[in-house]
């Protein structure tokens, strides 16, 4: 294991000492900072730029018990060509599905450049054995998933068993690499090149509850080798929030400064409007910095957001709002 | 790159008259003298309007109007006075956008601050003291506390309308009448407030507004018909007022300068501390009497904190105050800019190291980039004198006792900030800092229910909260 800072995970006590030695987060201050950045006024050319940027960062997601191959194929078509009437709309970054639907998505997206992400490790609760989690990851990667969105064991984290969480992430990372990313593809860049599937680690911040925990879990995941840290499964309320994302952006910024390794951030769940998405982009711009404003380093996990982005994009171009029936439901 | 397009707030909402008279006895009147003064937009040097400079005769007229209104206003049941104050508060909320734009035009502060800080606090202050007007008997000053009479109030240019609210709201709630002089460079929102008094049908003479400079202020505070003087401004002028009022029956409250310490311990929540430092000294271009102008940082984390702070200063957006994305606006006047420059040059001459982020400065108007001084010693002028600008002096300490010693080692004592995650240390510090307000893991937070005022040369008396009533009651 050559991950930077891996030595802090040499024992439960060193890992605990490291995580508890991180600077605390003052909740009131973090909330105030996120709220202030939420007042930035992004208009005209900046809004156009932000909308296209946001579209390119979307991980278009369906994670329902009722998902079918037909539903996934429809979503893939939308991912490649979000607005059938306007070819200037860029494709989204990836689609995100359950492991058993990865093959369907890979087939539907072949040659498109849109990546397939799969949740794994007994999503969303993470309550299973390590063997099952690793096997599930391997299957998803073997089916062609270029990205794996794993969940951490929140129970272990809250019980203070940080090393267990660490070891699960390391094992999942290994499973991502072992199976070898079948997709890779021409859009592969940044941290992705030739390393097998890209690992996004879901912290489920709604269950971690405190910002101190969010900061510790972020560092824990990064030390264990996460390529991305992701807020939420979307199955727990609250899902992504601005202040939680702020704390995670501070973590990736500081991790890069400390280790030289850059990690991406993905807020997911509850981001439904263009206005919300733009607030996240401002947060990235003024916290981690403009270097993160790229689909390789920042994603938005969402489903209904895309249509609002399309609607606002069309409004910017034509000056008029079209009704919801002018945007496809997928 | 993600460049924010200009997002200026429209100035169409404000209607600035070419010229203003004085507001006396509920009417706009012309001054007796000829002297007039142009008020400019400090961001562009554009002339906004001409205002009258009231002379002694005008001040006398205003004080007489206030004295004439006093018997009626003070005899009115508190619940009735409250109705007027509530009405004023609601009109301020309704006209908040207009007043915010006007404040930004006249003062140079960013619209984000006038919109999100000044105006909400102005309205809150009137609402808060409206609530006291019929409860004075329960405020702890005896069963029937009486007002003083005519209050002569002189306010500064840094928070023009907010300082007006801090002065007028408690005065009226207690049953006093008022003659207020706004600062010479920022009279416009006070003049708009005169219109609000008319809109609220406030009885004539209860509030009078006389514009002018130091001479007008001196005429007001020295007028024999004034029963109470409230002044916010420099320690230098405060001292003059205290001297001239000594031996008179006039009650005096002074809210003066500061050189506050913002103290960061090694266990502080670092990212929020950086925000607090920025908010402490760069909020309102540092034109804040309680600004955290001295950063005292524990030496063991000084390098990390400074690096984070410099990175953060690089993201501050300086420019058009009306742009909704502007963080740092214009310096209020050429005179103030000269003072900031002079002290900054003194800082360099005395051996401190000066740093500013790369920051384009507009061609016209009065501007000063956010500035840090490191290697500052207690003996340097920039560690002792109030700069009243976006200039932060960074000093280090080793132990909590040293932090207290250095923080208190100033002629001022208006505010302080402490950053630590350790509650016992926070309380230990708070009980030893000689400052009117000690902020815990935050800075520059205000609330009408919280008393505000200084120790030592920062003045005496308290404004805000129940304590703020005391200065306007005969006790």
Automatic annotation (TrEMBL), chain A:
GO terms for biological process: carbohydrate catabolic process; deoxyribonucleotide catabolic process. Keywords: Lyase, Schiff base. Pathway: Carbohydrate degradation; 2-deoxy-D-ribose 1-phosphate degradation; D-glyceraldehyde 3-phosphate and acetaldehyde from 2-deoxy-alpha-D-ribose 1-phosphate: step 2/2. InterPro entries: Aldolase_TIM (IPR013785), DeoC (IPR011343), DeoC/FbaB/LacD_aldolase (IPR002915). It catalyses: 2-deoxy-D-ribose 5-phosphate = D-glyceraldehyde 3-phosphate + acetaldehyde. Its EC number is 4.1.2.4. GO terms for cellular component: cytoplasm. It holds the Pfam family DeoC. One of its GO terms (molecular function) is deoxyribose-phosphate aldolase activity. It comes from the Bacteria. It is an enzyme of class 4 (lyase). Belongs to the DeoC/FbaB aldolase family. DeoC type 2 subfamily. This is deoxyribose-phosphate aldolase. It comes from Microbispora rosea. The lineage of its organism: Bacteria, Bacillati, Actinomycetota, Actinomycetes, Streptosporangiales.
From TrEMBL, chain B:
InterPro entries: Ald_DH/histidinol_DH, Ald_DH_C, Ald_DH_CS_GLU, Ald_DH_N, Aldehyde_DH_dom. The active site is at 255. It holds the Pfam family Aldedh. Signal peptide: none annotated. Keywords: Oxidoreductase. It comes from the Bacteria. Residues 28-473 form the Aldehyde dehydrogenase domain. The keyword Transferase does not apply. GO terms for molecular function: oxidoreductase activity, acting on the aldehyde or oxo group of donors, NAD or NADP as acceptor. Belongs to the aldehyde dehydrogenase family. This is Aldehyde dehydrogenase (NAD+).
